[in-house]
Amino acid sequence: MTSKPKTKVTFYNGLTTIGGPMIEVAYDKSHVLFDLGEVYRPELGLKMEDEDFATLLKYQLIGDVPDFYDPKVTGKEIDHERWEHSAAYISHLHLDHSKAMNLLAPEIPLYAGPLTAALLPVLNRDGEFLLPAADKPKNYTRPIIAAKLNEPIHVGDITLTVVPSDHDAYGATGLIVKTPDKTIVHTGDIRLHGYHPDWVRKFMAAGEGCDMLIIEGTG
Ligand SMILES: [Zn+2]
């Protein structure tokens, strides 16, 4: 007899830093990752060209997340037998939530709100915003799927719902993750003192009663 699958949440980065959260929610053969930013550490004095994968891991600028990054970057294959369904999401376009998105394996779909999906390739048109993808021109931006707001996205056993939120980045969204046994809410960066507190309150109402609330804080 095999035991019933359970939801597993793993924090790979962002617990002790301002920004840079990388969190995996897994259930049976499905898993999702959010966000894909780089922790901001200007004191290291690193230039973009210094930021190879080993350096990013060494300074914990990104999480050491298995089975999501491009094997051309990590040198390690993705275990597609273990994981039949994979997806990733970024909440907004700030670098501590988006800069590492080109490191995601090309075959794994990446979702974001429609404004975030439209703006990131423009911000990266000179190749000075995002970390580069393997074997691509410096100004390449990997495909981002513009999620329809408030509509469920199915990733195997996991459902993602991207909802409008408010932050000082245009198009910021939050995420509601549902597995067969748990509901997890990921706020990304969030504020109630901006232009759309009503959107944030609606988001919180949609996530009310969740089993886990993952919220950003800078205190
Ligand atoms: Zn932000």
Give a structural overview.
By secondary structure, the protein is α/β, with parallel strands linked by helices. Helices cover 16% and strands 24% of the residues. It has a single domain (7-214), classed as Ribonuclease Z/Hydroxyacylglutathione hydrolase-like (Metallo-beta-lactamase, Chain A), CATH 3.60.15. It contains five helices and eleven strands; from the N terminus they run βββααβαβαβββββαβ. The strands form two sheets. The chain has a six-stranded mixed β-sheet with strand order 1-2-3-4-5-6, covered by helices on one side. Strand 2 and strand 3 form a beta hairpin. It is globular. The N and C termini lie far apart (47 Å). Zinc ion (ZN) is lined by residues 92, 94, 167, 169, 189.
Topology:
Layout: E1 7-13, E2 22-27, E3 30-34, H1 53-58, H2 71-74, E4 85-89, H3 95-98, E5 110-112, H4 114-123, E6 145-146, E7 152-155, E8 158-164, E9 173-178, E10 183-186, H5 197-206, E11 212-214
The structure holds zinc ion.
Zinc ion is lined by residues 92, 94, 167, 169, 189.
Q: What's the CATH architecture?
A: 4-Layer Sandwich
Low-confidence stretches: none
CATH topology group: Metallo-beta-lactamase, Chain A
Q: Termini separation (Å)?
A: 47 Å
Overall outline = globular
Strand tally is 11
Number of domains: 1
Largest beta-sheet characterization: 6 strands, mixed
Small molecules in complex? zinc ion
Q: Give the ordered list of helices and strands.
A: EEEHHEHEHEEEEEHE
Strand residues, percent: 15-25%
